[in-house]
Amino acid sequence: MAPVPLEGHQAAVGGGQEARGGSVSLSMLIDFMVQRTYHELTVLAELLPRKTDVERKVEIYNFSARTRQLFVRLLALVKWASGASKVEKSNVIMQFLDKQSLLLVETADLLTRVARDTLVHARLPSFHIPAAVEVLTTGTYARLPAVVRERIVPPDPISAAERRQTLLRLNQVIQHRLVTSDIRPQMRNLKIEAGRVTFVVDREFEVCLTVMGEGENVPWRLLSVKILVADKETGEGRPLVHPLQTHYLHEVLQSRLVDEKQPLHEVYDLLHHFCLSLRLEVLYCQTVRLCRERLEEHVRIEEYRPGRTLSVSYWRHLADQPQHRLTLHADPHDAAKPLAVAHLPSLAQADAHLVEQALATEQLSVERLLVHTIYLRARARLQELNTELLAICQDLDCELQGSPAVLSVAVLQPCLRAELMLVSVDTHSGQLLVHVPQWASSSPAVVTEVQMALNHDRTRLPTLLPEVRFWLAQRRCEKTLQHLPASAHERLPLLHAADHPLTRLSRHRMYVRLHRHRRVILLVELLPAAGCRIRTAFHLLMVKPASIEDSPDDDGVETEFPKTYLRVQHMVELDMYVATHGPCTAVDESCGQKRKAAEGPAAKRAKHSEYFIPELSHVVAMCDERLPLVTVAAELSKRGIPHQGIQVEAGATAVVLRIVKLPTRSPAFEKRLLSVSLRMQGKGGRAWLAEFVFHGAPLQSTHPREQTFRRPVYFQYELGLEEHVPATVDALLRDWHTLENLYQLVDDLAFFFKNGDKYGLSGLVTIKSYSYKRLVVSYGAERALSVSVTWSAEERAFKLILNPSTSNPHSLVREQLQAHLNRHRDLALTLALVCETQEPLQALAKLPGLPQLGVFQSKLQVATQGFTLLPQSPTHLRLVYQGVYCLEVRVRGQGLVSIRDGSYSHLDRTHILSDLTPTQGLKAFLSKYVDESAVFMRRRSQSEDDNPPSPVVAMENPASNPGSASGQSETQNTSSPSVPSPFLGGLRPQSPATRGPDAPTPAAVMRFHPPPHTPPSNPHTPASPHPAMGHGFSPASFSLASPPPAAGATAPLVNPSPTVLPSPSPILHSPNPLPSPLLAQSSPQQVVGHSPAAAFPQVTLAESSPFPSSPAASNWPGSPSVPRGSPGAARGAPGHSPAFTQSPDAVGAAAAASKAAPHMSRVLPQRSWAGAVPTLLTYEALDLLCTPGPGPAPVNPLLHPCPLERFLGSLYLRRQLQRHIQSDEAFSNSRANLQLHPVANQEPGVVHMKTDTMMCRVYQNTTHLQSLHMKLSPLDEHDESSWSAEEFQLLEKYFESKVACPPFKPQALISFARMLIVPYNVLKDVVQIIRFEMVPQIGLQQNWRWSVQWRLRNPPSGYGLIPIGVASFVICRQKILFFLSITRQGVQYPPGVEPPSTILPLVYDIMTNVTQLAHKQEQNQVITSALAAANMQLKRFSESHAGYDQCSLLPAIRDLLANLVMPNEPQPLMPPMAAAQVVGSPAMQSPMGQMHHSPLPPGPLYPQQQASPMINPHPMMPQ
Asked: Which residue has the higher pLDDT, 896 or 233?
């Protein structure tokens, strides 16, 4: 529909100014539109009923269409109006330009018209040259007409001299007229000057007169009149007289000056009367305003007659006083006098004169007049009251002073200014006001009564003044007790008999309640004294809480009502002198003369204020000091503890309660006690101080303060209420028993120190301090460690505190040591345990225990602790690694510890504890650290180990059977060393086999108590798995042929542990066979251990041998076996690669070693529970196991785990690899023919697996068992030429250095396992990328910009593709996701600037053969500049190599490393080409390739690498 214009409002569109100039308000436009719509709607409502239905519909449609279009235009206009400001600015600019254009056109037209019409006829007249010359030369023009001068220019004035002469003459005339005239005295203040006389009347008027001639009849001429009456508060500062009124006064005065005979009198009378009337009017207005605004109830105008009088009344509510009135009036006898003031009642003449002076000011103020009047009235009233008070009591000290006037009355002597009773007069009402400044806010009742008596009935003053005096004394008592532990009360709910002595005391008293003694009340009796003074008397009330229904005669009869009252039981009067002259009070030595001299004017001022009552403070202090001691003494007597009562100490310094004897169980401890004293310590007695004084000590310490014979011990207790006294006595007795228990422990320890040569304890520990409360013993090297022994009365046990708490190794077993001490109560044995376990615990404390993330594949975000120490006893600890493996460590003493696999039960070695896994190869690993010489010292006889006793004999004699329950503990002692230490050897008893009948029993001396389930005597010989071997057995149930099989023998064990060295033996199969250092350095007598490497040099794995084992080795675990040669040792184990076969040199070396030790013929049985047999190690070997170091073959220069962590970490990774192969994930890619197949094998501890192209064998290093290695070989069904030995060696080296390395995370192992199952062509490219990482010289030689590294675990900057920490090599749906880290190389950067590096998430599609950057489509992944550059580079490569037949992974990565340019790279020190030349030079070769041993053969890209030797190798460390 076409737009329809609005009728009557459509403006014509033109190009002129009128078209843009008009405007209309938007509100008006809307109003018009609404009105039009309403009008049309009204018309429709009237016309539609007359039309047909069709016509009505047409009309309604037309109306809706018009209205819709109208409002659509309005909507468009409103939307346009949002930007109307810009249009308006453009419109203004257009108007301005139009106006300027119009002005230019009009100017041009006007100039044209002037040029064409006006200027044509224009002519210039002749110049008036003479006039111009005259003006320019003379500066004036003298040729004007004379009429101008006559009519316009005024005549010249008189000269200044003539003017002065005329005025002087006029002054003389005025002076003469004044002398000859009669003048009022008020007008004597005049001034004649400049021909006029000025009369000034202060505060009234100022008039100026002159005369117009010298004649006597010439009248005065009035020049000016000025009224001096002013009020700044009236009329907002404007003049009080209007100018018209002033003009009227001027005319009246001028007429009077002409007509009257005495004109000057008329001038004064008229102006004086006018000014007086004006002053009265001003005062009246001020009074009216004052009454209306503030003082309506107190001031009232009694009478006002304008111009004559003003009467104001005040103090209208005084009943016994006449009405007070102030009247202002003019003098009726002499109208020339000023206003006068009249007072009713009349004032003294001097006071009235002072009030009149209030009017003699420039500023009129009725309020000032009232204030002066009321001040004089109040002073007069207070003076009368002063006279009356002195008549009542002559000792009162009264003083009247101040403005307003205040009467100060000293009711009590001595009196402070704040305690004066101040009497003043209320200026509004005239009432007398009384208040005491110190307690003005509290409005006391007695002060109110005194005020009422002063205003109404003064006959009560003689009785009220003493009440005020007592009231002030009571307030002084409250002030005195303000900072004391007491509170003052005027009344208390006391119950007492009617004839009680309390009723005979004065009614003026104060009750003082002691905060710490609720049943004692101090009563202060106030008595009058001479000279307005008060004296005090003190009484002690013993009260008891009671109810109103309790029986006063029988204390045992009590009701259940609330006890809100206090029943008085006893009252004691205190002697003032005794109370104020206690042990803490200075002695008053002054006599009569000195006292009189002190009372003179030269007396020193008191140190305390007058409101402080020293007697009261002394009495309260005495009660607070002695009552607790009295309560404690009563409690001690109640418990039967003798004491000497409260005594004053020497020097009168304090009071003390001495206890004679305390209950004890130790006579020796009681003999050392000299005294026990109980005092109160602190200012005001805040705590109890108990002092125990002892004589010497049973042990001599090195502390300098403990070298005297007097040894005081102090304890503090909280000083509570009376109800807490039993608890205080209990605490005292607990501390006493604490000292006694610790003394008994120390007394037993002193026996070993006195016999130091016999026991050697003094050489192990040093008594650092013994204060009877605490014993501090230092031990260790240079005595750097210490242990504190205390007794805990709450737990009734001894407590151990280790220092320093963070670095003390015994912090691990502190609770166990503490429990051992409390169980045996033998401190010497505990200290022996501390000294013996120091070195093992220091070694175990070196193990890392920080929690790590990503240990378990299923719980990546759960932190798992690396090593966890679980102490079982002071000498028994369980060491858990990663929550999987458990080692049991026992400290045997004499420098030896035993380690066994803690996953096996002590009762049944075939039973594995839940949640734990057996540690495979533990026996072989620990055997490498066995010191054979130390083990030989521990063994009792060589023949007993090599030829164990017959089981039948063992059954017949259970006491000597190592496996029996009764002989187990003693058998364990046979493994203890026969050469004792200086201390433990003296304390430990001998074995029962060598102990005589008179030897002391084991319970009589100190010894290491063995654990209940100890392995047999030979710690390196596995015991039978039969459960009966641990607890004894019957002969009928024992088979002599072979031991019965274990209950769990048929169940498959996880990762069966070998009991001998894994095949191949490090002695037989090392490339360069060397004899063991232990074999080479040990004599035949020393080679007694059972290290597999030393005992069986000619034996390989039993599984690889075709010959059966010896019956002796299989039937009985303790019997010797006959060594047999293994055919596998000569021809190699079947299924093994030739690289693992032994050489003839190794066989010869093994044979030589066998001949050197012919007696080492016992073969360890093949049992998975061999690790359950304890292995003895020295402290040095344990420290070597737990000390972090680079290791035999250091891989990571930043991480140096200890040998034990390397062994367990390798074992843990091998276990995780085996679990990964057997898990469902290994078969999840079977549809894509990507699968890792496990291969069954007979080698314990070796994992065999295969892919489509290769066979993998994962095993631990057979030399030191601290690293995990992989051996790769091609499958038989594939061509061996597809994989070269160099590629296999590269993968093996990468596995050793990057996968199976610290921190031993299984995710890297899983990523590597996934690498091996990718297709053959992809794996080829993966191997080449690994080559770039392992040999960085390749990139430098080819001038690549970036070096590359595989990220086997997802880093935190993994861009959210997969969870953080998981295996970052993922195969899913024919796609491979992996992460590469690239670092800028070949460029030298300034110091402190690291080369740029980034992590690239890449995806290789096997189907499309495309390598691209990985990203998530459903999320807004943050694309950095580095990722964007890498993405562009990969896209360019994909576009340029479309249809590439070979695998594009390696070419894409190579192109990325060579050509990728990162934005915002830091500026290098030299150009990249020059840096590459310098880096690629032989002198600047990177040493990374020379840090580790490389299996790669020497070649152009693989320079020969040498293994770095071990730094400072330990003599026991396997090489």
From this structure: 896
